[in-house]
Amino acid sequence: MTKLAVFASGRGSNFQTIYKKIQDGYISAEINLLVTDNEQAGAISFANENKISVATINPKDFPTPQAFGKAILNRLGSHQIDYVVLAGYLKKIPENVVGKYHNRIVNIHPALLPAFGGKGMYGMRVHRAVFNSGAKLSGVTVHLVNNEYDAGPIVLQKAVEIDDCNSPEEIANKVLSFEHIVFPEAIKLLVDNKPQVIGNRVIIRNYGR
Ligand code: GRF
Q1: Sign (positive/negative) of CA torsion 160, 162, 165, 166?
Q2: pLDDT tens digits, residue range 89-128?
Q3: Closest residue by CA, ligand 1 atom 9
Q4: Which end of the chain has less Cβ packing within 10 Å, N or C?
């Protein structure tokens, strides 16, 4: 069974959604570990309630990104993790982790990358930028993680109509509801099919979409 580690820094609604999709058999995997940088993260209580191991690893406790990465790799190794799922994780993944888990780290971004992404573009900052741009569409992007912020090969995207949204908060809420559909679908795709990555393109054979 494919073993997942979920990384979350906050409330963890995507984490909970993925867990539930595993429980109902939609995703053939198990979540063996929650990694967080924030001991106040709401995701921790959900993990505890569901007997999922928790590793609180704060980058501030390490002298270098390399040392931070080693601590992460130790925990991933001891739980035999196959895939890393970033579900609202705000820290940059160290290069030694990206290298070891090449094309096996997936992230969700609440906009249609490459637009409205990159360093510092997270949470409400994204939705404010989208709202202020006057765009009629936003959306959800699930992508593989490389050493750049929000720049890895895209696995799945879904556009979301936002013409009816009158504030960045309304955009955030509408996009989040689509995240809870698209993220589990993307993880199922990755778990069920060995995707080919050619340059920045993810090819998933016999997947009609
Ligand atoms: C989501 O909007 C996600 O797109 C972004 O961080 C937020 C996490 O929300 N990466 P939650 O913790 O999953 O509720």
Answers
A1: positive
A2: 999 999 999 999 999 999 999 999 999 999 999 999 999 9
A3: 88
A4: C
